[in-house]
Design brief:
Strand content: 25-35%
Distance between the termini: 32 Å
CATH superfamily of the largest domain: SGNH hydrolase
CATH class of the largest domain: Alpha Beta
CATH topology of the largest domain: Rossmann fold
Number of helices: 6
Helix content: 10-25%
Structural class: alpha+beta
Largest sheet: 6 strands, antiparallel
Number of strands: 19
C-alpha cells in the first residue's frame, strides 16, 4: 500500500542553489532563473520518484518549448504558454536520477524557472552532474537555432512546435563530442544585413557577446575549446557585396579571437546558401597564415533536396545528421579529440 503513496516535499528555489548546474547563458530576473537562448537551461540530480518544476509568468505570441530528459532519456517536450504550467515528471524508481531541462525554442521573451518540488519519502537534491571538460560555442542563425527542423518541406511558415534546438547539426555534434556547449543563435540575422536586407538590424558581430538575446555583455568566464561560426546565409537578403561581407567576416573572427585567445575557430558555411563560399574560403585561407587555429568547413547545400528540407526551406533532421557528421570529423581533426571523455559521477 505504502509504495503507491506519493510523498510531496516543500518547494526548493532554483536561484543561488549550488545543487543546480546552469547550461548556457542566463540571467536572474526577480528571483527566477531566466533563459532566452536556444538550448539553455539547467541540470540537477536528486533522490526520489519525481518532481514538479514551477515557472514564472511568460508572455509571448507563441509558446516556448521545454525538453526534460531523465537519466539520458527524453521524458517530456512541453509547451509553455503563460508560465502557469507545472512541468511534472513522476513514477520514477526511488533512486538517484540525473535531469536536464532545456529551452529548445528561441524568442526574446525569457522563460522563468522558480522552484522544484521533489517526490519521495526521503527525496533530496544531490550534487549536480559534472559538465564535460570539452567546450564548444556556436554562433549562428536559424540553422543553429533549429528553425523548422521538425517541419515538413511543404510548411511555409514558422511555428515554435516545428523548432527544436536539440535536433540541429550543432547539438548532434555536441553529443558526438560529448561536450558542454552554448548556442548563441538568432534566426534571420547576418553579419552585414538580415534576411530582409536590413543593415540596421542587430548582427552576429554584436549578439555573439550578449548575455541575453536582447543585450548585456557576457563576462562569466566560460571559455570554449572550439567556436563554430555558421553565419552569413541571411546576408543574401541585401545582398551584401563581397567587399562588405569580407570586412564583416574578418571583424567577427577578430572579435571572437580577442574574446577566446586559444580556441579553434571553424567557420562552417553552405547549408542554405553558397553565395559567399569563395569569399569565405579566400578570407580564411589568408587569416590562417597568421592564425593556424582558424578553419573553414564547407557543407553541401540542402537547396533543391526535398529529403533534407524542413519548414520554410530549412534543414530537417536528415540534413542535421549529415552535417553533424561533417562537423564532428572536422572538430576531431583540429582538436585531437579521438577518445570518449570520462565524466566522473559527482557525489
Amino acid at each position: 500500500m505504502e509504495k503507491n503513496i506519493v510523498f510531496v516535499n516543500e518547494p526548493i528555489k532554483l536561484v543561488d542553489n549550488d545543487k543546480i548546474r546552469i547550461k548556457g547563458r542566463y540571467t536572474v530576473s526577480d528571483g527566477y532563473l531566466a533563459f532566452d537562448w536556444t538550448n539553455s537551461g539547467f541540470a540537477f540530480a536528486f533522490n526520489g520518484t519525481g518532481f514538479i518544476l514551477s515557472l514564472g509568468a511568460y508572455t509571448a505570441d507563441i509558446p516556448a518549448y521545454v525538453k526534460i530528459t531523465v537519466d539520458g532519456k527524453l521524458r517530456q517536450r512541453v509547451a509553455v504558454v503563460n508560465g502557469s504550467e507545472k512541468l511534472i515528471v513522476e513514477g520514477l524508481s526511488d533512486k538517484r536520477h540525473r535531469v536536464e531541462v532545456l529551452k529548445v525554442t528561441e524568442g526574446d521573451a525569457k522563460l522563468l524557472f522558480d522552484t522544484i518540488t521533489l517526490f519521495g519519502l526521503n527525496a533530496s537534491l544531490r550534487n549536480p552532474p559534472f559538465n564535460s571538460p570539452r567546450r564548444i560555442e556556436f554562433i549562428g542563425d536559424s540553422m543553429t537555432a533549429g528553425y523548422g527542423v521538425l517541419g515538413a518541406n511543404t510548411d511555409p511558415d514558422y511555428q515554435t512546435f516545428q523548432q527544436d534546438g536539440t535536433c540541429t547539426y550543432a547539438y548532434l555534434t555536441v553529443q558526438k563530442c560529448n561536450a558542454d556547449a552554448r548556442f548563441i543563435c538568432n534566426s534571420g540575422k547576418g553579419i552585414v544585413c538580415n534576411c530582409n536586407g536590413d543593415r540596421e538590424d542587430v548582427k552576429a558581430g554584436e549578439y555573439y557577446n550578449y548575455q541575453t538575446r536582447l543585450g548585456g555583455e557576457c563576462n562569466d568566464g566560460w571559455i570554449p575549446d572550439v567556436v563554430v561560426i555558421n553565419i552569413g546565409t541571411n546576408d543574401c537578403g541585401g545582398p551584401a557585396t563581397d567587399e562588405e561581407f569580407t570586412e564583416a567576416a574578418k571583424d567577427l573572427i577578430a572579435k571572437v579571437r580577442a574574446r577566446y585567445n586559444d580556441a579553434h575557430i571553424i567557420w562552417m558555411y553552405g547549408m542554405m546558401s553558397q553565395l559567399y563560399k569563395d569569399v569565405l574560403r579566400k578570407l580564411i585561407r589568408e587569416v590562417s597564415k597568421t592564425d593556424e587555429k582558424v578553419h573553414f568547413l564547407f557543407a553541401d547545400t540542402i537547396i533543391g533536396n526535398d529529403a533534407e528540407n524542413g519548414a520554410n526551406g530549412h534543414p530537417n533532421m536528415r540534413a542535421s545528421v549529415r552535417c553533424s557528421k561533417l562537423l564532428y570529423k572536422k572538430i576531431r581533426s583540429v582538436t585531437g579529440w579521438k577518445n570518449d571523455v570520462v565524466i566522473p559521477d559527482e557525489e
